[in-house]
Here is the input.
Amino acid sequence: SDRETLLSPMARLLEVVLNIKKNSDAVRLRQLVELAESEDPVVAFEALEHLARQFTLDKQPEQAENALTRARDLNPECGTPILGQFYFFNNNFDAAIPIFQEILDNGTNPTIALMLGEALATQNRLNEIRKLSEKYRVGNKTILQLGTYLDALYAFGRQDFATLSDNIKRIKGVYKTPVALLMSLHAAVYERDVNGIREVVDSIRVTEGADALLEQAQNIVMPLIKASFDGQNFVAAANLADLFQNPNKPDLFLTRVSLTGNFDQGLLRRRDIEAALQAFPDDPVVLHIAAELAMQNRQFGEALTHIERNLRNGNATDSIRLQYIL
Here is the structure.
């Protein structure tokens, strides 16, 4: 009957899923726990998968792992990859690697192979990455791209940036994982490709976990910013520094680089110098550039204020004294 259908495990599961936004977490959790005990293996599997998602959202990884382990036991073909990915995204690479290897013993799943390669890279197991890449030399475009990506992982592990850069160029934009983005950034830094660096940083900004990735990205790019600045390539240095400027957490070195390069290009805005002065009111470089900009705009009183502050602070360099004389 219709009522029996409505009371069937599958119907109850559908009702839970369709009303996911209407019911409270506690009610939904209780219903899924009940359905996970269903004699219908399909219903039980789906309920366990939904349970795992809920436990993950609730930051209960042990319960999520238990649910996915039970799901795998019910349906190894579907459950094993899900469990492996759970371990991977929770940085439990020791658990993820053997699961991925087991899956790939029976096929060449590109998604799983990519995650296996990245997991092996975290443990610097380079020979295993190289052997894995050899399985992806022949096939369709997806297979060949994966082989090239694994070659890039291997080159990166060996700090062979020339080979890394070559491989990244061949698969540019195909992979957007955090590892792929950071490798692409290393390649762009190696090539001193300012536009390439900007493209990668822009991609990082829209990636989950962007804040932590941006911090890593800044550490990767910072040596190039310093080298460009020390080599008086102020424009390139400023373009790179501006990628990492954070008004909520101003950095003195990046501020100096940005102001210097943008002033040289005639692109320095008054609001930028005002923000720099608010963050670093006594920095001699900031005050010097503020005075230069004010004089350029024929705001001589304001310029004198910045120059005198610099002199009072004991910053009587030749360039600052020259400003005062002029």
